[in-house]
Design goal:
Strand content: under 5%
Number of strands: 0
Helix content: over 70%
Number of domains: 1
Length: 121
């Protein structure tokens, strides 16, 4: 550790490492660069690696929430609209059932694709 980190407790070093990593992540740096910068600042190697992994996981979680989750919700809305259309058609035309298959099947396929992407992330 360098001289400035010698007087800090383990918890303070950890807090300093996470604050530094978040600042670096927000500036657009990748995980390897964050790890290298943390080590250069005197953060112990194992702690720097753990912090870099945590930053990487946080970035992946944000991608899922910002990009994939709205697509998944839209697919569920399509399924609900298809089922509502089927229910309304049964009420209006009790002798014949019109099922909006395109909405329901399309929604199921889109929801399944989004769910698989969320699990991969």
């Amino acid at each position: 550790m360098n001289e400035s980190n010698e007087s800090l407790t383990e918890e303070e070093v950890k807090k300093k490492a996470y604050l530094m990593a978040m600042r670096l992540k927000n500036s657009g740096l990748d995980t390897e660069t964050i790890y290298a910068r943390l080590e250069k600042q005197g953060i112990p190697e194992d702690l720097a690696l753990q912090v870099a992994k945590d930053v990487w996981l946080e970035k992946k979680r944000q991608v899922v929430e910002q990009e994939i989750k709205p697509f998944f919700q839209a697919a569920l809305i399509r399924i609900a609209a298809g089922l509502a259309g089927a229910l309304i058609s049964v009420i209006i035309f009790p002798d014949r059932v019109i099922i909006p298959v395109g909405l329901i099947v399309g929604g199921v396929i889109a929801a399944a694709a989004a769910y698989i992407k969320m699990k991969e992330q």
